[in-house]
What we know:
By secondary structure, the chain is an alpha/beta fold. The protein has helices spanning 11-23, 62-72, 86-91, 93-117, 120-125, 157-176, 198-207, 227-240, 257-271, 300-306, 314-327, 329-337, and strands at 2-6, 27-32, 52-56, 76-79, 127-133, 180-185, 187-189, 212-215, 221-226, 246-249, 254-256, 282-285.
Amino acid sequence: xxxxxxxxxxxxxxxxxxxxxxxxxxxxxxxxxxxxxxxxxxxxxxxxxxxxxxxxxxxxxxxxxxxxxxxxxxxxxxxxxxxxxxxxxxxxxxxxxxxxxxxxxxxxxxxxxxxxxxxxxxxxxxxxxxxxxxxxxxxxxxxxxxxxxxxxxxxxxxxxxxxxxxxxxxxxxxxxxxxxxxxxxxxxxxxxxxxxxxxxxxxxxxxxxxxxxxxxxxxxxxxxxxxxxxxxxxxxxxxxxxxxxxxxxxxxxxxxxxxxxxxxxxxxxxxxxxxxxxxxxxxxxxxxxxxxxxxxxxxxxxxxxxxxxxxxxxxxxxxxxxxxxxxxxxxxxxxxxxxxxxxxxxxxxx
Length: 350
């Protein structure tokens, strides 16, 4: 079997690519444009595998994507390529529309044409898994969880473009018959996450003795899913999911942002006691415009239909993550030293 993974040099995509090469016998074609948030260092450990191929390409480039399908002849697609940072989407929404909406449309159109060229068992077995986020559902109050049937109420440009791409994927199944499946996941964390996101940003700033910035009073709540658990879920969807269905992936690990940062500081205190207490670095800053209060996903469908379970508890996963960033400065320091603007985003007007 050969699988085309888009965004395979990004955070979740690279976790999936590494997992597939290490734990299965499938061939992987990694399609990534190596934008600011992606690096081939994230897949360096498996890049020499004879079952791995890399194609640098923009998913919105139709001729290039059609050529990749024709040359590699994959048995399916797991689509993760996306602009994903909410703060950045507030400042520059156009890039999110181009990649998340136009890019997904282009990929779906190319996949459909290629799928129609297949015959027999390969035609019947082809799958297109579209990977999305819980943010498409909007914001929850103090209680309850989003299910796969929850209405879409996106509140940021990022969430709106992902919602649009979800609807495109569903429509390509309903209208054209392309065997698509949609997944929505809660906040991911773990090794190789780009430094603009809350957990790696907090760890790296603490390691550098810089303020750990917390939006508002840190009361916003997220459900945190370890990236390797999510990657296993995506592969279960690809191999066992029902065409036309949506599957939510959450971990029942809800936590206020301020409590999460406290857990990070506690882990850093144990790993780097000379600089303790790291909590002295916490600094409250102006909140993000339209900051959703709470996300929580009901993952019962994935558990019962796919036999999937998250393995990493939040405290365990955070310790693994902190230790990884301490041990792998050679991965993240080049990002900060090669022109990435690490200053606060998300306060400008569109």
